[in-house]
Design brief:
Shape: elongated
Number of strands: 48
Number of helices: 1
Low-confidence stretches: 8-23, 570-582
Strand order of the largest sheet: 1-2-3-5
Radius of gyration: 33 Å
Largest sheet: 4 strands, antiparallel
Mean pLDDT: 90
Distance between the termini: 88 Å
Structural class: mainly beta
Amino acid sequence: MKAKKLSGFLLVVFILYCGFSYAAQETRALRFPAIYNNQIVFSYAGDLYTVPSTGGVARKLTSHEGFEIFARFSPDGKNIAFTGEYDGNREVYLLPANGGVPKRLTYTTSLSRDDVSDRMGPNNIVMGWKHDNKHIVFRSRMREWNDFNGQLYFASVDGETPVQLPLPRGGFCSFSPDDKKLAYNRIFREFRTWKRYRGGMADDIWIYDFDTKKIQNITDNPAQDIIPMWSGDKIYFLSDRDDNKKMNLYVYDMATKETRKLTNFTEFDIKFPSLGSKALVFENGGYIYRFGLTEEQAVKVPIVIANDMVSGRDKIVNVMDNITNYEIAPDGKRALFGARGEIFTVPAKHGNTRNLTNTSGFHERNSKWSPDGKWIAYISDASGANEIYIMPQDGADKPQQITKDADTYKYQIYWSSDSKKLLWSDKKLRLNYVDIETKKTVEVARAKAWEIGQYAWSPDSMWIAYAKPEAEAMTKVYLYSLQAKKTYEVTDGWYSSNSPSFSSDGKFLFFVSDRDFNPIYSRTEFNHAYLAMSRVYLVTLSADEKSPFEPISDEVELAKEVSEETGKSGSKLAPDKKDNLQEKEVQVKVDADGLKERIVGLPIETAYYYSVTSVGDKI
């Protein structure tokens, strides 16, 4: 009896433990943290949360459907300033640190590039506070036409008209303890996707003296030095100047003018740090870390979001507005659509719509119908990487994985005309094809300057045409022979050429090239511009094939004697008879010698042409 009670008790403990473990799962994708003493505020799924600096279950402060980001504690810890979307556009708001009703502090117009996800970042971003607890500094583009630039403004907690700081432009910033100086970035580019950037827009940290009106550069490094945070006689900041070129935390000593590296993250960059009186906090790999200013050690803060996760619940979604690709089946009876990470076929008239993949946990894209109508090919991350799959067009059988060991992002796939091979390019600047039977991948080409984005199969599936960006010339068009495994140059590097496409009969290769230079001149300045430069060109692939635009000349036809026996001189057929010739399969013949000399421009006006396609004797 005792044994039964003990086993029952242990079972209850086990169930409770499992439930607690599930509920206490550590949350990731935590953003824009700030700290005051023992309290951290951060953004998650567009709302603000607060949590003890040692971690735990976070408490939700906001619940509006718009984004609330870049929360910053006032120096006394009583209020939180943040950028919110309560009334449509991005504005500065004030919220009691323990929660309450947000108060709007700024009123500006919406910009054309004013979204949270924009690469220039949202507008009216809260940067920090003055130490008087009355003024919030924020970056705004309210008077700036250039999306790259913005100015720094003061917003008063009383809602007064914002006042611009005496700087022509600015980004992340931090005031000195006496508010007489400002450490700041001139440029705001932290929302850009550029990594390891070393160009002219790489930030430095400058100090502006409000009394002397002078500025001083304290970093002067080719790397990115961003987000200064002033504490006492030290300025903390992020830089990717190390060997790994990852954003890590550094400190600049105002007295010794020395810079030290404080962290050594090698996998992910540190993002969006914020300073408190005794510690600073930052993002890394989706987690929040606390860095003590005295002990100089970074500690991950374990945070749990325990809400209903309503945005992640299963639901029926109308994907009509989320279509990413579409095409018609070879026989025209169904249409193929890619939408919201799923693949659908839709009947032309009768039947049901089929979700061929129906995998809410994976993302399928770039679906293509095979020319023989049997297969649907697509790219999926079901394996954890971008791989190519095929499946029967009716969804009657499981998908087959065609590629493996993916090492980068794949772009659009195209079927060969015989439905036996698939062609694609990738983010590593390669062009590849794979045989769906052998699953063997062949590298066709590899660029150096940029990704290969335009490529096409020949009608006999034995040739590939592609446009490759060149490092020291304009984009060129090439031909690749699958049989010979050789590459042939079709155009030279003097003119940019792109959009290669074979004619349906395999006799010609069409492409677009910028070869017309007809400048127009400004009426107010001595400048000129080249607008319409493109024309469609063709090259006869075989040396025996005549140009369809060769000169025509009217000549006198002489009467010929017609044999009564044959009906025509030298012919065995009567004049009203025709050869009963059957259509033959297309076989593309390429004479590599003299390809460039056989280029002919189509007699059309110059314009901006792209996506050239041949159908029969028309393009």
